[in-house]
């Protein structure tokens, strides 16, 4: 997860923003060429028999989707809103529709979308979907999302399965689901879906999970006399924000997958649907320092914007990594620790606490890296009615051409 290659381009974009606007800088800057290089690298490492979808919940800005589209098999949506947006922004691209609490109107929308596969999260949803498909006279491909614990699976800060959660079916509900499906010719069971956790940074542990998913599906096929084509092993590949080099080791994981698939002569295809690991590295949130002050012995830098644009630091409970883009003013503080805050009238508006700073002055910019996923779109954007950040997409050519 190396973001330093983007820094000169981000710096140049910030310089352009300074010239264009009379106001202090506040912007998201996305390096689309870096995004393209990253997704191509991910794709190239993935062995034959594996599919790569992008979970749009991480960041569904149109240029991000356009950049990814040539290199992914499709997109995953987790709401009717995302489904509608993806249909408009990426017409014709295969879609997956998952998530709990789907409305009837959302199920109808998915059924109306050619090439959309539904991830069924409960028995109740299965019956509703079957009734709607019958009423509309259409057929649907479905996956059953399973919440099955895997011995030794470990845990992360964000667990969706292997314990009580609102996601997926317990194995105890599977016989009833399969029995129901025998009476629902309008629904085709294409596969099983697993997403037990996000923030998984251990490639070996994730490989063990994938092996367990394949074993489980093998066992279910034998036990129930069914045949499916695909196992969706979810997303959740983790990013270490403090030490990006210790993020999920994709190459190691893909090597392991290659061995796993060759050992098993697996007839099943494997599908992945990561979000964060795909887009996090391409985004930067840039804030211009407005004021530097001392309070009860500690320095604070107050910068334009805040957690209403960039909720990632409080959401993760961490000090977000950043670099200082020095402006032209003489430093006000040097070789000291500074807390970096936004403009909100709450002491919670902190992006990084007591950070070592070599030199800082008003007019300098703080460029927060790893801001391309679960950042702007998870933020409480209307709080205090501050204006939105500028959105800058750096791109050296049409999607598919940058190297
Ligand atoms: C079902 C499902 N798939 C994929 C993802 C994407 O996860 P990540 O962004 O951690 O890769 C999520 C995240 O919540 C999810 O719930």
Topology:
Elements lengths: L6 H14 L5 E6 H14 L4 E6 L6 H7 L5 E4 L2 H10 L5 E3 L6 H8 L4 E5 L2 H14 L3 E6 L12 E2 L14 H9 L4 E7 L3 E2 L4 H22 L5 E3 L17 H15 L4 E4 L3 H4 L3 E13 L2 E6 L8 H5 L5 E4 L7 E9 L8 E11 L4 E4 L21 E5 L9
The chain binds pyridoxal-5'-phosphate.
Question: What do you see in this structure?
Answer:
The protein is an alpha/beta fold and 403 residues long. The chain has 2 domains: 4-30 and 281-394, Lyase, Ornithine Decarboxylase, Chain A, domain 1 (Beta Barrel); 94-274, TIM Barrel (Alpha-Beta Barrel), CATH 3.20.20.10. The protein contains 11 helices and 18 strands. The strands form 3 sheets. Strands 1, 12, 13, 14, 15, 16, 17 and 18 form an 8-stranded mixed beta sheet that branches. It has an 8-stranded parallel beta barrel with strand order 2-3-4-5-6-8-10-11, surrounded by 4 helices. The protein has a two-stranded antiparallel sheet with strand order 7-9. Strand 2, helix 3 and strand 3 (74-77) form a beta-alpha-beta unit. Helix 2 (32-45) runs parallel beside helix 3 (62-68). The longest helix has 22 residues, at 203-224. The chain is elongated, with a radius of gyration of 23 Å. Pyridoxal-5'-phosphate (PLP) binds at residues 55, 58, 76, 98, 160, 195, 198, 234-237, 273-277. Residues 55, 58, 76, 98, 160, 195, 198, 234-237, 273-277 line the site of pyridoxal-5'-phosphate.
> What is the top-level CATH class of the largest domain?
Alpha Beta
Q: Which overall shape is indicated by the principal axes computed on the Cα atoms?
A: elongated
Rg from alpha-carbon coordinates: 23 Å
User: Structural class from helices and strands?
Assistant: alpha/beta
First-to-last CA distance:
18 Å
Q: Can you tell me the number of structural domains?
A: 2
The biggest sheet, with number of strands, parallel, antiparallel or mixed sense and barrel status, is:
8 strands, mixed
Helix percentage: 25-40%
**What is the annotated CATH architecture of the largest domain?**
Alpha-Beta Barrel
What string, H for helix and E for strand, traces the elements in order?
HEHEHEHEHEHEEHEEHEHEHEEHEEEEE
Detail the poorly predicted runs.
Answer: 398-403
Strand content bin: 15-25%
Number of strands: 18
Ligands, ions, cofactors: pyridoxal-5'-phosphate
CATH topology term of the largest domain: TIM Barrel
Mind telling me the CATH superfamily name of the largest domain? Alanine racemase
On the 0 to 100 scale, the average pLDDT is 94
Q: Helix tally?
A: 11
């Amino acid at each position: 997860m190396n973001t330093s290659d983007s820094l000169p381009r981000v710096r140049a974009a910030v310089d352009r923003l300074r010239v264009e606007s009379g106001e202090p800088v506040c912007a998201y800057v996305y390096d689309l060429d870096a995004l393209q290089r990253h997704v191509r690298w991910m794709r190239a490492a993935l062995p034959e028999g594996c599919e790569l979808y992008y979970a749009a919940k991480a960041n569904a800005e149109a240029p991000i989707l356009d950049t990814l589209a040539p290199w992914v098999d499709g997109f995953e949506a987790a709401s009717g809103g995302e489904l509608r947006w993806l249909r408009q922004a990426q017409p014709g691209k295969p879609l997956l529709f998952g998530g709990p609490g789907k409305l009837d109107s959302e199920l109808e929308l998915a059924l109306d979308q050619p090439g959309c596969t539904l991830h069924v999260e409960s028995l109740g949803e299965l019956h509703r979907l079957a009734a709607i498909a019958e009423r509309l006279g259409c057929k649907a491909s479905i996956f059953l999302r399973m919440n099955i614990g895997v011995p030794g699976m470990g845990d992360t800060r964000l667990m969706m399965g292997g314990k009580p959660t609102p996601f997926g079916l317990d194995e105890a509900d599977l016989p009833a689901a399969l029995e129901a499906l025998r009476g629902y010719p309008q629904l085709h069971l294409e596969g099983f879906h697993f997403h037990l956790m996000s923030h998984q940074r251990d490639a070996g542990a994730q490989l063990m999970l994938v092996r367990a998913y394949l074993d489980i599906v093998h066992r279910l096929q034998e036990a129930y006399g069914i045949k499916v084509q695909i196992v969706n092993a979810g997303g959740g590949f983790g990013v270490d924000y403090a030490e990006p080099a210790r993020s999920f080791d994709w190459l190691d994981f893909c090597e392991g997958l290659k061995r796993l698939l060759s050992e098993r002569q697996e007839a099943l295809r494997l599908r992945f649907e990561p979000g964060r690991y795909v887009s996090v590295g391409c985004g930067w949130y840039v804030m211009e320092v407005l004021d530097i002050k001392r309070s009860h012995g500690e320095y604070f830098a107050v910068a334009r914007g805040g957690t209403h644009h960039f909720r990632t630091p409080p959401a993760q409970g961490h000090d977000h990594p950043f670099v200082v883009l020095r402006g032209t003013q003489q430093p006000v503080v040097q070789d000291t620790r500074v807390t970096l805050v936004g403009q909100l009238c709450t002491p919670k508006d902190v992006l990084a606490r007591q950070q070592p700073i070599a030199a800082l002055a008003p007019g300098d910019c703080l460029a927060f890296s790893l801001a391309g996923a679960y950042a702007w779109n998870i933020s409480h954007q209307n709080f205090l009615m501050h204006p939105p950040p500028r959105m800058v997409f750096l791109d050296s050519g049409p999607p598919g051409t940058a190297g």
